[in-house]
Amino acid sequence: MAINIPGVIAMVVFYLLVLGTGIWASFKSKREQKKSAATGVEMTLLGNRNINWVVGIFTLTATWVGGGFIVGTVEMVYTPSMGLTWTIMMHLAYSSCFLIAGFVFAKPMREANYVTMLDPFHIKYGKVVAAGLSLTSVILDLIWVPATLISLGGVMSVVLDLSFAVCIWISAAVAITYTLLGGLYSVAYTDVIQLVLIFISLWLCVPFVLTNPSVSDISQTLMNNTLHSPWIGKPEMKKTWIMIDEFLFFTLGSLGYQCIHQRILSAASTATAKRSCFLAAFIYPVLVIPPILLGAATASTDWNLTTYGSPSPFERGEAALALPIALQHLAPSVISIIAIGCVAAAVMSSADSALLSAASVFSSNIYKNILRPQASDREIQWVIRASVLVVGLVSTSLTSLKTSVLLFWFVGADVAYIVIFPQLLCVLFFSISNGYGAIMGFLVGIPLRLLSGDPSLGLPPVIHFPGCTLEDGVYVQYAPVKTISMLSAVAAILLFSYLASVLFNRGMLPEKWDVFKVKVQHSPQPLTPIADTTEHDENEKLNRNNSQNEASEPMVSTSC
């Protein structure tokens, strides 16, 4: 198969459109900065906290609408063991994530004027715990980028017959470039263009694929399919707890990523942040419908009647490529090219979010708060640019691992659910929480999760929860092990925080052992301006007087 020249030309035009939007947004960012006299860091990381609710909806939704969203949805519907049942569950979970963010997290996060979701840890627990959680957050984003880029490489290599590596590096280069130029403004405004392209492109493909003569009526094949297993999936009562576990995993685990909180913190007000979250929760499911229909069409196709031939993609072990195969063999070439633009838009809309998220946490919570508290605004801006570039290059290089990266991503998602989310919940809503509890929460949650077993890692269960059965020589857990581990982490954080507080405040342990200073711990306070040297000098004096109390006021933040 020769390279699809018209497709390549169309992709160049598409990339130029996205890059042009990013460059325009970078100029808009500079104009806004001059008008408001905001610092460069404020503009780069938070858009001067001036993102309106319309742009906020687009950029929030685009955060989860990535390449994996489109390609993965088609694959899930097409895969017999998952089908429509599991697909709806997963996407309802992501939609619920926005609702919980709006109802629960938007108010305390936005009103405290945090720069990142890691700021309350630095304020309350000090540098040691904050550093560990910050590094964890950066790694999660570092893994997320290659996971979403891989989906684009697979689609382009099938439809355009381009090299897997070339497709990925070009897309990553475009995303890195406009993120470097304009920060959050470029990311947010390109998200608007990308989401519009995704919506139009997906709906344009659907009628061509569904009306292909090789595709049977999907309403008939939903429950009874002679060509393939029914695409409703195989819902089983014994998997009810697993489904509940997965729903909570996707819903609450998604709140363990910095990118969604970055959108909340950049909103013009608390009310704007809430409104953006609520509306994004209802817009997100609309974008799920076209990939579901494409997956249903793929499952309802008689591949003998197509140029693909028999056996089917599932029988050949190519279910992961269900979308590009369907586009190539069931839709006109022009339509398949448009769909490639849709996938590329989805990939970049998620990749740029992860790039800026990782750069925000590293520059603010690690470099400024821990490594160089005296760093100037200009220095931090260069650190942000360097972070975006390094994260982009490293994460794109990891795409060569392919399957291993996806495995890392699954592990990272577990970490977000079992480590980051419980810690964030406790630091924001439970005043008793402290550094001792935070460490114990980690030491309880992660080992419990590993001892519960994980088939993707080849780990057999050591702890057999109720319902654990031996199937084909392998023990299968039917209990909600991820949620059990998460709740155990929350319980450990609160219990050991309370015990440490009692032991030190009642003098049962000597105060010199109190490395986290629970006796003098303050509740989180709004952060001081990043460029305010007077406040910085006062904080430096406070740090010298309490050299072990790393929970003093942080060095980085902005005001409304």
Could you please describe the fold and organization of this structure?
It is a single chain. The protein is mostly helical and 560 residues long. Strands 1-2 form a two-stranded antiparallel ribbon. It contains 19 helices and two strands. Residues 522-560 have low confidence and may be disordered. The longest helix is centred in the middle third of the chain and has 47 residues, at 164-210. Helices cover 69% and strands 1% of the residues.
Fold topology:
Blueprint: H1 5-36, H2 40-46, H3 53-64, H4 67-78, H5 83-111, H6 119-125, H7 127-159, H8 164-210, H9 218-221, H10 240-253, H11 258-265, H12 270-299, H13 322-330, H14 333-371, H15 377-397, H16 403-429, H17 435-451, E1 469-471, E2 474-476, H18 481-505, H19 533-545
Antiparallel strand pairs: 1-2
Helix pairs in contact: 1-8, 1-14, 2-8, 3-8, 3-11, 3-12, 3-14, 4-5, 4-7, 4-12, 4-14, 5-10, 5-11, 5-12, 6-7, 7-8, 7-13, 7-14, 7-15, 7-16, 8-12, 8-14, 8-15, 10-16, 14-15, 16-17, 16-18, 17-18
